[in-house]
Amino acid sequence: MARHLAVFPGSFDPISFGHLDVVRRGRHLFDEIVVAVGHNPGKAQLFTLEERVEMTQTLTDEIVAAEPDAAPVRVASFSGLTVDYAATVGAAALLRGIRNLSDLQYEIQQAVTNREVAGLETAFVVAGRSFAYTSSSLIRQITALGKDLSALDSMVPPLVIDMLRQKKDAKHPMLQGLMVDPDE
Q1: pTM score, two decimals?
Q2: What confidence score (pLDDT) does residue 179 get?
Q3: 140 part of a folded domain
Q4: DSSP conformation letters of the chain
Q5: Contact 71, 27 (CB under 8 A)
Q6: Number of independent structural domains in the chain
């Protein structure tokens, strides 16, 4: 019998409770999940690829430990086209989270393209209500502009808040750029 492996691709910059919810639920739909942390040299990142992989590995290990009978999870980095990476690991499908109608429109276009170009199906998991408006961009904005990072408690795990605090304290250029007043 064929094993059904799904690749959950993303930049995870940073990883959020919404991302982890997709992993948690995907473990009950597939025989194995590969969380594929993407490297895009043309896109500015707050966290290095290594930091994103390490955070993702730590947090997915916690999910697996809490429910050891569900599908295993692997974390890996990749660059290039997602469909090419998915083919190299033998994926049956891509796993994607949908938060709202905007996500749905974009993701359907991607799913149709991936099926037509690479014969790769996409499985969608609809976000829970508490994750519907969380995005990595919003998390970075709150980090840059907020005084108290505990406002992120409902969006990201404590490990991520600690790492965000380190980036903020170090005056990371991406966070500094978010603080620039456009009227100046």
Answers
A1: 0.93
A2: 82
A3: yes
A4: ----EEEEEE--TT--HHHHHHHHHHTTTSSEEEEEEEE-TTS--SS-HHHHHHHHHHHHHHHHHHSTTS--EEEEEEES-HHHHHHHTT-SEEEEEE-SHHHHHHHHHHHHHHHHHH--EEEEEEPPGGGTT--HHHHHHHHHH-S-GGGGTTTS-HHHHHHHHHHHHTT-HHHHHHT--TT-
A5: yes
A6: 2
Domain limits at 77? 5-131
Say if 183 falls within a structural domain. Answer: no
Output the pLDDT for position 126. 92
Tokens of 161: 């808040």
Exposure of 54 by Cβ count < 10 A (0-12 exposed, 13-18 middle, 19+ buried)? middle
Catalytic residues, by residue number, are 19, 43, 99, 136
- Ranges of residues in the chain with a pLDDT under 70 are 1-2, 180-184
Greatest alpha-carbon pair distance for the chain in Å reads 63
Question: At 104, which amino acid appears?
Answer: L
